[in-house]
Amino acid sequence: MPSVVRVERTWEQAWHEALYGEGGFYRRPEGPAGHFATSAQGGAAELLAGALLELARRESLTTIVDVACGRGELLEALAEQADPSIRLVGTDVVDRPADLAQRVEWVRSPGGRHLPDLGSPTGALVLAHEWLDVVPCPVAEVDDDGTLREVHVGPSGAERLGPPLGDADLEWADAWWPAPREPGDRVEVGRTRDAAFAGLVEGVHSGLVVAVDYGHTRDDRPPAGSLVGYVDGAVCAPVPDGGCDLTAHVAMDSLRPDRLLTQREALRELGLDGARPPLDLARSDPAGYLAALARASQASALTSGSPGGFLWALRRVG
User: Coiled coil: which residue ranges (predicted)?
Assistant: First the structure.
């Protein structure tokens, strides 16, 4: 167990600087897609875009905002499929990508939990896809006496235990992470994520706000926490030096959504289930069969395994 010695910064501070500071991971030229794939990239983005357009159609929404959108990969897929009457807006910490579809509006974001002014859109579907897991939060650990102490970290990733968790963070932990705590157990305090999501909701005049992320609920909190690093497509130790992504799963129930469901459930509701096309199609339309089979494979990738277990938190506004 780390000894009780104060070091340079809290995890929340070091995490923010490593991702969003000058030269931070998310400001690098290659963008997130240079290191890992998400459902908003590659062939899967086409299907996810179609599902989001169906959701917007069902809810009579005419603006789609993609928060923390990387370099606009999902927005490109949306631009190819969306009716010209649908307004598309992207926001991230970098300048507008030069090759982004002209119809996509762009708003520069300060990064982390801090949001730009989105202009209080009306009739908007606001998507935060894998955003909250990279909103830095305090990391706390139980010491030998059973006290939750904030974990501090140095540039190399070496950790020490700092002072006891502050009142507001301790109140959140008691309310939302109340599982039995043994020495060495960790809590990733989701108060900053709750505030970020609430800020996003408050910035919308009317519509539907959807956070999609790796997450957990009160019944399955990870006792050891989930903070981890990613670089070049592989998991690595979480070192806050700007050389890797830093992510931790989200306490999705503490966002107080109107609905909370898995990506598998959400996409199946929107008509995306990964079912294979009938074999008769292979005889009557071989090319059509192959195209349908590829689509089914992409849909299966979105609705099974790890992506299928993503959680969707939906909050209606107005």
Answer: none
